[in-house]
Design goal:
The protein is of the alpha+beta class. Helices cover 41% and strands 16% of the residues. It has a six-stranded mixed β-sheet. It is globular and about 60 Å long. It comes from Paragonimus heterotremus.
Length: 303
């Protein structure tokens, strides 16, 4: 079976690959970007989802977080950043390798064609100068997340999913990253940070300073144009109008020469213990067990 191929145009904007996809979108332009994280230090990888959650909710450049939020609502359909993991797709010259996966940060947003100047200006502010120094804002966001999306009650709503994700973590590199970013490892990190930030004292300041250093390191990695590629989706006029503003955005970002040590295409993580037990405040136990199965490209895969 062969998928229908959609036409697109590959070009460059200030040295960055850009894919242009022409389609009727009723005067909307959709923007995507991928920032390669394969050379991000391993100790920072677990913080990527937290970074993605915090990043678009901060102030930037000359705007407070309230002003940034109002500008995003006024001029765009939303700006977001998310952690993105992709398994290695086999080709005619390579076979599937369970120990290989590509990790990146996915930038996404959309807006009306006439709003593109302001749209890319806001992205430029966020990528050039996010306000990581607002400790009160960071504390509020993290504690809200710890008591909300990552609370024990929230985990209980999808406890079987968490158990299965943990059980499958060692089956492939992609499953391992899924557990790190979206599983119990991530839940434990956020809840530990929330507990520490909820206490007043010198330790809280130390935790915040350490966290800010990590966030800044991830930001500098992501905002480097040597690790970025983009795509635009819209009608012909929208693409033509948007491309110059995307070029201005790229021109405003730093560009570094990759070091000789940055030659890894795929991230490698340490395997987890085969069996694990997590103490949770539940009256019910949730368990998961995972087995290797043929990949979708294997002749043994169920049709």
């Amino acid at each position: 079976m062969e998928c229908r191929r959609e036409p697109f145009t590959m070009t460059e904007a200030t040295g960055c690959p850009v894919q242009l996809n022409e389609a009727p979108t009723n005067k909307l332009v959709y923007f995507h970007g991928l920032a390669d994280l394969s050379t991000l230090p391993t100790d920072l990888l677990i913080y990527v989802p937290l970074f993605c959650d915090l990043f678009p909710r901060l102030g930037a450049d000359d705007l407070t977080y309230l002003e940034m939020d109002q500008a995003i609502d006024l001029h765009t359909g939303g700006l977001s950043l998310s952690a993105h993991v992709t398994p290695v797709v086999p080709t005619q010259t390579t076979t599937t390798r369970n120990n290989s996966t590509a990790v990146s940060a996915h930038l996404f947003g959309y807006g009306l064609e006439e709003k593109m100047p302001k749209f890319f200006e806001l992205w430029s502010k966020l990528l050039r100068a996010p306000t990581w120094s607002d400790k009160q804002r960071l504390t509020t966001l993290i504690m809200t997340s710890a008591s909300g999306d990552w609370s024990a009650n929230a985990i209980a709503d999808s406890a079987h999913r968490f158990a299965m994700r943990r059980a499958a973590a060692n089956l492939s590199a992609t499953c391992r990253v899924h557990e790190l970013w979206f599983g119990l490892e991530q839940a434990m990190l956020i809840r530990q940070l929330g507990n520490k930030l909820g206490k007043k004292g010198p330790e809280t300041e130390s935790v915040l300073n350490d966290l800010i250093e990590r966030m800044v390191a991830i930001w500098k990695h992501i905002a480097d144009t040597t690790r970025l590629r983009f795509s635009l989706h819209g009608d012909s006029d929208g693409l033509c109008a948007s491309l110059p503003y995307l070029e201005n955005l790229i021109s405003s970002l730093p560009q570094t020469v990759p070091s000789a040590s940055e030659n890894s295409s795929f991230v490698q993580l340490t395997p987890l213990p085969q069996n694990a037990y997590f103490v949770m405040p539940y009256t019910v136990h949730y368990t998961g067990q995972a087995f290797s199965a043929p990949t979708y490209d294997s002749p043994d895969y169920a049709a």
